[in-house]
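Quick one, tokens below:
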């Protein structure tokens, strides 16, 4: 019986624990055949086998979600006992795989990797939704996508035919596991499913938000100590930008920002350093601008949360980060980023915090602000906006007046 047939034959009407047990045994047999293989399987074969097994397991879990509570409870207990064995078998297959087969220079293997990751993430999301006690299974599932942590590829800009292995490995601890899974997979539907499941759980949500900021801090340290890894750091920052929009909708994120918001600013500064110093990436238009802008999106998309709960410290970090970027390739990105900052600040009536942050920032930032004001990009949000007589934001003159006290604007 094929895995596809096995998964589809299970319905809420015919579901039994014996059938689940049979399914898990069958999955184990597919991933690790009874007779030893004479040679390691190729990367593609491993992906096909793991992917088929995970798709089948996903079908089973979809059914389990519809079961009555007593049967669902028994299913959880079975998974807790059996799932680790299945994942360990998968991990063994990954370690036996011929990794050199990844290197034929096409994006087909990477597409297979993405498909397998997406399916695995769907399984993890189902496990989280099924029962929080399956956290151990979530951690074990990381072994099934250990490939994502070891072989998530970025192209060498000086030698595009070469694929680098990601230099970032992590221990299988809950905090790092969740943070890394979501960091690498937010571009997939499965990654978003995981995050949605995590944020729906009060216990796991706090754990993940903490992991998110810990990861930002770790990336900063890695890039500062190992400049040659700047390209891979940038890749992760891009994925973390996708997460920020989800996090900004939850109060836990607001509270964590109060304690850890400075890491967001540091990440922006790090992005600008990568652009200005190179860090293994060629700084030519439009590369510098696009990389910087991608990283700044991570911050600007969460500014709505930042400026409603924080003092202006994080904004200072972000704006100072801008100043390190070479003006030629990145000026348009600076302008666009500041446009977002102003827009969020105006919408949330937090212009005083923004104006305070802009005091004392480097001249290059001030020039970008003046240009925005002059061309009128933000005219509707900036001209003579007086909020309860607390702040005067701008004028039609090619200058910017940013003071907390209108009396100082003479």
């Amino acid at each position: 019986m094929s895995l596809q047939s096995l998964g589809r034959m299970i319905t809420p009407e015919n579901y039994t624990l014996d059938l689940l047990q049979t399914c898990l045994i069958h999955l184990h047999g597919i991933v690790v055949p009874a007779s030893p293989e004479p040679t390691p399987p190729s990367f593609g074969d491993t992906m096909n086998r793991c992917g088929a097994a995970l798709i089948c397991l996903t079908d089973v879990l979809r059914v389990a979600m519809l079961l009555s509570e007593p049967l669902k409870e028994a299913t959880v207990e079975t998974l807790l006992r059996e799932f680790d064995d299945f994942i360990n078998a998968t991990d063994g297959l990954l370690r036996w795989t011929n990794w050199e087969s990844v290197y034929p220079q096409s994006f087909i293997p990477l597409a297979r990797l993405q498909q397998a990751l997406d399916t695995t993430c769907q399984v993890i999301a189902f496990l989280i939704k099924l029962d929080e006690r399956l956290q151990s299974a979530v951690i074990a599932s990381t072994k099934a996508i250990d490939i994502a942590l070891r072989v998530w590829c970025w192209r060498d800009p000086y030698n595009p035919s070469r694929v680098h292995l990601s230099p970032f490995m992590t221990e299988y601890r809950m905090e790092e596991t969740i943070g890394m899974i979501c960091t690498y997979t937010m571009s997939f539907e499965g990654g978003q499913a995981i995050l949605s499941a995590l944020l729906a759980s009060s216990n796991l949500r706090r754990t993940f938000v903490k992991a998110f900021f810990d990861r930002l801090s770790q990336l900063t340290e890695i890039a500062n100590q190992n400049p040659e890894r700047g390209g891979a750091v940038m890749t992760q920052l891009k994925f973390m930008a996708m997460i920020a929009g989800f996090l900004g909708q939850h109060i836990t994120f607001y509270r964590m920002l109060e304690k850890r918001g400075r890491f967001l600013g540091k990440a922006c500064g790090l992005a600008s350093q990568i652009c200005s110093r190179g860090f293994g990436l060629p700084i030519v238009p439009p590369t510098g601008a696009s990389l910087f802008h991608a990283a700044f999106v991570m911050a600007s998309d969460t500014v709505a949360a930042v400026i409603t709960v924080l003092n202006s410290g994080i904004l200072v970090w972000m704006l100072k980060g801008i100043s390190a970027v070479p003006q030629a390739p990145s000026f348009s990105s600076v302008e666009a980023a500041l446009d977002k900052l102003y827009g969020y600040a105006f919408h949330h009536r937090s212009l005083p915090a923004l104006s305070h942050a802009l005091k004392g920032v480097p001249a290059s930032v001030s020039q970008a602000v003046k240009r925005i004001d002059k061309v009128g990009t933000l005219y509707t949000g900036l001209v003579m906006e007086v909020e309860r007589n607390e702040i005067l934001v701008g004028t039609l003159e090619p200058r910017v007046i940013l003071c907390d006290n209108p009396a100082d604007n003479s």
